Structures are given as C-alpha cells and as structure tokens.
Amino acid sequence: MCGRASGRMQAEAMAEQLAPGTHVRVRDDYPPGHIRTPVYVRGKEGVVVRAFGSFPNPETLAIGRDGLPKKTLYEVRFKQKDLWSDYAGPEADCLDIDIYEHWLTKVQG
Amino acid sequence: MRGPHDLGGLPAGAVDTAPHEPTFWEKQIDAINALLAQKGLRRTDENRRYIEMLGHDAYETLSYYERWTAALARQLIDKGVLTQDEIDAKVAHVRARLGQDAG
Amino acid sequence: MTEAHTHDHDHDAADHGHAHAPPAKDEKIHSYYQVLGLALKELLIEKGIVSADEIRKTIELRDSITPALGARIVARAWTDPAYKKRLLTNGSEAIHEFGLDMGALHLVVVENTPSTHNMIVCTLCSCYPRAVLGLPPSWYKSREYRSRAVREPRKVLEEFGTHLSRDVEVRVHDSTADIRYLVLPMRPKGTEKLSEDELAALVTRDCMIGTSVVRSL
C-alpha cells in the first residue's frame, strides 16, 4: 500500500504542469481504442491557454475502468493556418481544443 | 487512420440549417439513455466507445439516435442485462404488432 | 427518420454523380432500428429496469430545458456586470443562480467581443451544454457541421447567414472533454432601454452556439 501511494505521488509530481503560453506539440500517434484527441490536431503545434484541472482518463473509462490516475486537461490554441494548409481565413483565426496531458509534449526553444 | 466519428476537417456538403424537431421516438431514446446513466447502467465514455465501434458503414448509414440505439443494444448485451435472443424475439414481436414483415 | 433523410439530401447535394445506396436497403435498416428502439424500451420496462412513468417524466424534464434559459442568463450578464464577471469566471457556479446544474460537467462561457467571435462544435460526437440549452439542434450533430466548422468556420457561418469581417478573429472551440462551452454573444446597439426580459427575447439558441449574432429588432 505504501509502495503504491508513493508511486502515484511520484507520477503526479513528474507530470509537468504546463503553464499558459507554453508551446506544445500534440503526439503524432494513432493508437487503437477510444481517443478524445482528434486526428486533425495530431502532430500539430499550439499554445496552452489554461489548465482545467485533472479528470479521469476517458480512454480507460471507456473500457469500464476507473480512469485513474487522473490526467490534467489543457485548453490548447492552434492557429487555423497551422492546422490547414489551405485555410483561407485571416491569420488571427484560431481553434481552441481540450487535450489531456499525455497527448502533449513541450516544444523546446 | 480515423475512427468513423473523427470527422474534424473531412470534406462535406452544406450544413442543413433547417430546424428538425426531434420525433417522439428520438426523445424516448434520449430519455432512456439519460435514465440508464442516472441509474449507473450506462457510462458516457463507454457509450461513446460503443458508437465508435459500430464501424464506418454503420456510422454513416445510421442516424444519430439510431447509432445510440445500436450502441445501447450492444452495451446491454455485453453487461448481461439483455440477451440477443431476447432482443430478437422482442423485435419479431413488435414487428408483428406493427404489421411489418420479418423480411 | 428525419435525421436520416436530412443526411441523404446532403449527400445528394454534395455528390451529384455519386452512386447512392439503394433507398430500399437503407429504409429496411432504418425501420429495423426504429423497431429495435421500441423493443429495447419494452424489454427494459418488462425487466423493471426502467418504468414507463420514469421515461415519461424524464422526457418532460428534458423538454422543460430550452434555449430560453440560456437567453435569460445572457440577458442577466448584459445588464449586471457583477453577474457577468461571475459567469465568465466560473460558469458552472454562476448558473446555480438560475437553478441550473452541470452535474459532473463544467461550463465555460466565452465572450464575443468586437474583435473575437466564438463558435462551438464537438467534432467527435455532440457535446453540448444540454443543462443550459436543452437538446442540440439537428445540424449541430451533423457530419457537415462537425467536419467543416473546424476547417472553414467562416463558410459555415455564411450558411447560417452570419457574415463577419476579416478584422474579427473567429475562434472555434472543439469540445472534446468534460468542458461545455456557451457563447456570451454581444449585446446589439440600440438596446439600452430594453428590460432584461426583452433582451432575453432577442437571444436565439444559435447565438449561444456561435453560429449567429444577436440582432436588435
């Protein structure tokens, strides 16, 4: 029991809290199963708007598990021109989407 | 590699913006789903997975509430609440009552 | 089925020369699913899992939640700056003041300004602030809206009769998790003398989804 608790605390500490303004890239992975990260943002770079707190993981809730450990949910903003090569609207147009922490990696530099 | 539900960015036609009031049948499906969720017999994320697992053809052919009906049937069978035999028998029964062919 | 027919018409409009599935087979499938829905309901009632009374009451309860509730919230935010601040800070809590509750979900209200127009979609399914607006419109759940709202929002807005200048940033929100979004539309000019009720009457559902803007009469 002690081992499990400290393991979980360790995992939570390791999960970096992404501050608003952090540049992130969505993992370009295609695992089978119930995923709430749409294909159109995978591999794309955006900016964290805010963190919404942590929620049970829908990917494991979907197979009848308890969804723990919880995952931090982030609102990430993408420029439409970065999502679609043929986007015809103005430069400022953007798209906000809610993505779980395990789908995001920090973009260095 | 997309699930049938992952529609963002796919080409599609004009949006039909006209109002389409839900039919009584659709409201019943909606209500039954809400009730089962309240009773802990149906969970949102599982339901979504069942809908996604219907496959591309079913996802495109069936309407929104028909997809919910299909997903509901599968969930109830998988959870042992109903059996396929029971459902098939009831379907035949309802069809006979409505005067439809088993066709 | 209303929704199936809608979908079929859109297919025809988009793909003129495209071979379409024979209507007879689709009709058989749709009729099967109508019957299946009835069958499931009757079996669930027979087994005592739900009762006909519960179903009826649930339908009535869900029918009682309409966009008029959302419109009242918008009108309050327009006339009461302190409420507007509460609404934008914590939407889930602010709607308690109207007797509404998001349950396990969270409400985030996004404000339209002269420089930013918000538009809400759920590309993956049909996530929608049902606790505040009731059932989503047919088009919100359609393939056409879900696929194009994120990719060509301005064209989709045009289809709703909503024209935005290129000076306005269009910000699309794809609701992929437990957050539900409500647009706080801009109050139109010339409405300074209207009461809260009169203001609420101007706010349509589509204004709170972001496919329309509020027009003064």
Descriptive notes:
The complex is a heterotrimer of chains A (109), B (103) and C (217). Chain A has 109 residues and is α+β, with helices and mostly antiparallel strands. In chain A, 19% of the residues lie in helices and 31% in strands. Chain A has a five-stranded antiparallel β-sheet. The longest helix of chain A is centred in the first third of the chain and has 13 residues, at 2-14. Chain B has a single domain (24-98), classed as Nitrile hydratase, beta subunit (Cyclin A, domain 1). Chain B is built from five helices and no strands. Chain B is globular. Chain C folds into two domains: 21-64, no CATH class; 65-209, Nitrile Hydratase, Chain A, CATH 3.90.330. In chain C, 48% of the residues lie in helices and 11% in strands. The A-C interface holds A 36-38, 40, 52, 55, 58, 73, 75, 80, 83-84, 87-90, 92-100 and C 106, 123-124, 150-154, 166-167, 169-179. Strand 4 of chain A pairs parallel with strand 3 (169-174) of chain C.
Largest interface, per-chain counts? B-C, 58 and 63 residues
Largest sheet of chain B: none
Reported for the largest beta sheet of chain A, the result is:
5 strands, antiparallel
Number of structural units classed as domains of chain A: 1
Highest-level CATH class of chain B: Mainly Alpha
**What is the chains' assembly state?**
heterotrimer
Task: Quote the distance from N terminus to C terminus of chain B.
Answer: 36 Å
The value of Rg of chain B in angstroms is: 16 Å
What's the tally of helices of chain A? 3
Molecular shape of chain A? globular
**Global structural class of chain A:** alpha+beta
Note the run of SSEs of chain B as H and E.
Answer: HHHHH
CATH topology assignment of chain A = SH3 type barrels
- Biggest β-sheet: strands ordered side by side in the sheet of chain A: 4-3-2-1-5
Ranges of chain A where pLDDT stays below 50 over 5 or more residues in a row are 10-14
Shape of chain B: globular
Provide tags for this entry.
heterotrimer; A: 109 residues; alpha+beta; SH3 type barrels; 5 strands; 19% helix; 31% strand; B: 103 residues; mainly alpha; Cyclin A, domain 1; 5 helices
Outline of this structure?
The complex is a heterotrimer of chains A (109), B (103) and C (217). By secondary structure, chain B is mainly α.
Question: What's the layout of helices and strands?
Answer:
The complex is a heterotrimer of chains A (about 110), B (about 100) and C (about 220).
Chain A: H1 2-14, E1 23-26, E2 45-55, H2 58-61, E3 71-79, H3 80-83, E4 94-100, E5 104-106
Antiparallel strand pairs in A: 1-2, 1-5, 2-3, 3-4
Chain B: H1 24-38, H2 44-52, H3 56-61, H4 64-78, H5 84-98
Helix pairs in contact in B: 1-4, 2-4
Chain C: H1 2-14, H2 23-46, H3 52-63, H4 67-79, H5 81-89, H6 91-94, E1 106-111, E2 116-121, H7 130-133, H8 143-148, H9 153-159, E3 169-174, E4 179-184, H10 196-202, H11 205-209
Parallel strand pairs in C: 1-4, 2-3
Helix pairs in contact in C: 4-5, 4-10
